[in-house]
Amino acid sequence: MAWWHSAVAYQIYPRSFADSNGDGVGDLKGILTHLDYLAMLGVDVVWLSPIYRSPMDDNGYDISDYDDIDPLFGTLADFDALVEGLHARGIRLVLDMVINHTSDVHPWFLESRKPGSPKRDWYYWRPARDGFEPGSEGAEPTNWGSFFAGRGWKFDPASGEYYLHLFSPRQPDLNWENPEVRAELYAMMRRWLDRGVDGFRFDVINLISKTLPLADGPAGPDGICYDPSVVAEGPRLHEFLKELNREVGIDERQLFTVGEMVLVNSADARAHTDPEAGELGMVFTFEHMMLDAGPSGLKWDIVPLRLPALKANLAHWQQELADVGWNSLYWENHDQPRSVSRFGDDSPEFRVASAKTLATTLHLLKGTPFVYQGEELGMTNAGLTGIEQYDDIESRNFYAGGLALGMDPAQLLGALAQRSRDNARTPVPWHGGAGAGFSTGTPWLPVNANHDQINAADAVADPGSVFHHYRKLIALRHDSALVREGRFELLLGEHPSLFCYLRSLDDQALLVVANWSSAPVPLPLDDLPSLVGARLILGTHDELSDTLAGWESRVYRLGW
């Protein structure tokens, strides 16, 4: 096993973690003031969302200089101090690496806009569709859409052609077919490793290979193709990832790597994370994050989550990557709403128990758990009520597009309140006072109104808090080979309220029983055939037969 197989990662979204200078935006010095908090939690790895120079069209995922820190976050000296401070506490640092696209003000792109430039081929420049006037409706080279809505091509009058942007028009896609592009990116990553970085989280990495020639995909009612399969898992992806691994020294340096992959399935994930393949350590899957989407498959089309569907999906991934590859485990990140509001019950009565139950269910699976900042406090969704409170480009585009279609503003705001990425991006509440201890200035996003009840200071002081529950789960993973390596078996797969599974290794087992409802549920012991002949090391048959209160989880250690 690699070192990161027993690790727990913690994602920091720098804008919202801690502000040291009162400008309302989190920064590196702010992170430095809370390193002991991270050490107390017990995490092994910090994943830092982008801190590079950027015009911040997409909050740093539009990079204009890969080799420097944006002044909003600090300096390279601050970064070096952060690396040193984390390493002194036994915590490794992973950078978010955005290499599918750059900012449109990156010097490479600015140079590429000149038709005769040697860097013209560093991006996807294409002429208008045959028979169409450049810049006219429908003249785009293909019908591809953007993940942020609208068309995926933008016309540049200065150069007379279109460039591809699968995200914002200010995020042009790099052309990985060009070996010079790849060589520059690899060299840049090696420079960060020389500064002490321990690995990378690769943003939308399975979009870097496009099928050539670029061609239309299946069109929707508006004539635009939003099918991600047209642009994901391209024909040279494995080749590019193997080359990246080799040139950057991923396996040689034993780096922590995880790839965000659009539309990835378990077969793809197994192929990418097979140690013999020499590609990535693990990937982020989206499948379990789409189970509460309606028939359209869009995140804004919201339907109630069916627990049996979630159990079946997570069990599938556990089984498919049991012997080859490795799972990443997560409920939250900077692109997802708060899990206790989404999958749990964030009412005052059940929020704490619900957050603990979600944590127990996830952290005792096989894989590397990821904790997103504030998740360990049981933070809820933001409670934003007006479009002027939102900053996220995806959310603003959704709202504007819905209004253009004549949709009810209240309905649009209701969808944003449940699914907007800004739900996870509100500032971390460090205490219950003014500014929540995040900033002495006006925060870039509003602080959650419930920060007087949900904050780090109170959680650390309360031994029964969600925070300390996460501490125990993280410590258990460090201490238990059974949690790290044991096999997985789903039990009671069709039960509408209980999430129950068995982990086993040699002659030991863990039975995890979680009530995912707000009502008491009896444990149907007679329906658990895997426990026949088991001998309880801790607990009794009567305890196993107990009724679980609403949003409660228990773990039993068994011996065969």
Question: Can you walk through the features of this model?
Answer:
Belongs to the glycosyl hydrolase 13 family. Residues 11-425 form the Glycosyl hydrolase family 13 catalytic domain. GO terms for molecular function: alpha-amylase activity. One of its GO terms (biological process) is oligosaccharide catabolic process. InterPro entries: GH, GH13_cat_dom, Glyco_hydro_b, O16G_dom_2. The structure is a single chain. The chain is an alpha/beta fold and 560 residues long. The protein has 3 domains: 3-103 and 179-472, TIM Barrel; 104-173, Oligo-1,6-glucosidase, Domain 2 (Oligo-1,6-glucosidase, domain 2, Alpha-Beta Complex); 486-559, Golgi alpha-mannosidase II (Immunoglobulin-like), CATH 2.60.40.1180. 27% of the residues lie in helices and 15% in strands. It is built from 16 helices and 20 strands. It has helices at residues 28-32, 35-41, 76-88, 107-112, 179-194, 237-248, 266-273, 307-320, 339-342, 351-363, 393-404, 409-419, 456-461, 466-479, 481-485, 541-545, and strands at residues 9-12, 45-48, 52-53, 65-69, 92-97, 125-126, 153-156, 161-164, 199-202, 256-260, 282-284, 328-329, 368-372, 487-491, 498-505, 508-515, 521-522, 535-536, 547-548, 553-559. It has an 8-stranded parallel beta sheet. It has a 5-stranded antiparallel beta sheet with strand order 14-15-16-20-18. The chain has a 3-stranded antiparallel beta sheet with strand order 6-8-7, with no helix packed on it. A hairpin with a 2-residue loop joins β15 (498-505) and β16 (508-515). The mean pLDDT is 93.
